[in-house]
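Researcher: Batch entry, complex prediction.
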Amino acid sequence: MPRSWSEAFDLGDGAAPPNARASAEEESEGRGVFRRLRESLSKSRQALQAELSSTLFDKLDDETWERLEEALILADVGAKTTADVVGRLEHEYEVGTVTDGEALRERLVELLAEVAASDDGRIDVSKRPTLLMIVGVNGTGKTTTIGKLAWHLKQELGLSVIVAAADTYRAAAIEQLEVWAERAGVEIVRGSPSGDPGAVVFDAISAAESRGIDVVIADTAGRLHTKTNLMEELAKVRRVAEKRLDGAPHESLIVIDATTGQNGLRQAQAFAQAVDLTGVVLTKLDGTAKGGIALAIASELDLPVKLIGVGEDLEDLRPFDAREFAAALLGD
Amino acid sequence: MFDQLSDRLQDTLSGVRSRGKLSEADVDRAMREIRLALLEADVNFKVVKQFTSQVRERCIGEGVLESLNPGQQVVKIVNEELASLMGGASRDIAFASSGPTVILMAGLQGSGKTTACAKLAKLLAKQGKKPALVACDTQRPAAVEQLVTMGQRAGVKVYEQGTSRDPTEIAEWALGQAKAAGEDVLIVDTAGRLHIDEELMDQLVAIRKRTKPHDVLLVLDAMTGQDAVNVAEEFASRVEFDGVVMTKLDGDARGGAALSVRAVTGKPILYASTGEKLDELERFHPERMASRILGMGDVMSLIEKAEEVSDEKQAEELQRKMRRQEFTLEDFLSQMKQVRKMGPLSSVLGMMPGMGKTMKQLREVNMDERELDRLEAIILSMTPAERARPDMIDGSRRKRIARGSGTTVQAVNQLVKQFGQMRKMMAQMASGKMPDPQQLLRGMR
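Model: Structure tokens for the complex:
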């Protein structure tokens, strides 16, 4: 069972927000969501995927381990994390903890899910207002994610949202977020183009406070983590938020494109240094890339994936489910 | 400390005697390191397998040269094979003999198509062409506005019809307009799309049919991992692209996707995008990419740029001075002038092999253009004697220099201190040793 939206968020006092759906509805909704998730994740992929065939685990020999490694590396899990995980599995096989093919597959999914999950993969929206800061390199899907997230927070959790157009650099970035704000039915706070991004966040927090808005989601300009001056600018935006609002930003989420290779780890490391990340949003999982780099990020940096993006529409955002993700890595 | 591939290989091959031969066992061990390096660089798993088995053949029995240690030898061979696989010098756009040359840009969401379109237009304009852009991304919010803005910045006309018309129609209309207006290049920006999205791939094919492009370019993000092969194969089979534009090469992704796409489709990479500014697009250089994939830094770029700007004699003299720590602030000033011609200091430094982590820390020194202006002003306020022997710059001299350059005593202090560190570092590099980044950092704080 995949996680529901209310499981994915920390609402603080635990009381269900006024517009949230009843739990029974959520359950059947959950199943429907699961089915749609599988569909959208598997659209035509079978044709192109090098699926780990179910017969792989029937016969257990040296080739099994090689093919397992191959599958994980092809999923961008990376040589190191792959070696770690497969090594652990091989050991368990050797000491007889797992014996047959089916158990092996099960155990592997478990191991992968363990690495991917974390203590609390929830997003904290308990403070009033809550500030969520969205960061990442160019082209990962930050603005689109914000549009989707704003909509889901409204629909699923009944929260009021303001989006802050703090990407004051890229051509038409503000206009882009404006379209999303309209689609999601939320207000937008913007500054002047080429203005100070920190000022936009500042204003958005003020607006949220004065209007009693629950959540502020701040968009930021895409930037390569190798550009020190841009990373410093981001750190500055964070400091502005910290000073303006106690505990802000309550979540700093890095958006990582699922097609990203090993560089994703470097990205996460660099951004974590600049702004203290609390989680990852893994986007574009509706393609053929498996996003295995998220596993490496979780493993090396203790940074969990909290949400996944599975398309360009408003609905195409899901809470992260470690087991599902692990199974998909193996071509399920 | 940055782990040079050749160093790692040398460890593995430390048993191989100079003037001996590389045995099969030696080569197998070396290939394991190469495989790891290439996987780390995001080269596709299958391409790596194929490539290493190719290279293996060449390495076995290769005599170990006197001038290189076995580790360096293997790297040299791998580098050569990689470069040759990446293809010869990149070709030019296939310009039409008459009428507008149509260039169709395609790729996944977020790959950098729109920016690349504007940059290409600017580049071609510089080359004397009359390029125009057409906004056929009617899908992504504000994509048309983005292209229009960038077109304005690039000084290039943008044909658009908003988002309500079918992109295929818009493309056809724009072509007619371009012909009438006498544009000689029309660059078509399209929506990012998944290679497995039937509907959108069909649309791309339709746009292609209507506009009959002279070049179809796949825009590929340098940080793309193993999936690059799937994307490339699918785009190749559905749309038949002619070449690739690699983007975001100003990051530190090794860019193995370049090798994968080349190996699997045979298509050349034409351009490399190296930043967000509109003039940051250059012709692709396969040998440099090969070195980068291997983690060796962009050796060629640096050498080439240095050659462009100083003559040999000067360079030799400089080397000598660097080695002997005789490098003065006067030299630094003239080097800075040359470096500024080369490009922002950090990108030049970044090209030096093995700089990796060191580079990251050095970048924190943050030598951007304004910084260079200040440094220049400070040095110009010094007497020739002071420039020759910065150690003689005492308190009163610092005050004078600060006043004369319109900066602060702290700025002067910092320059003198950093300069001292830089001199030490240059001496080390000139004598072939890698500087210790920790020490460097401490000195520069």
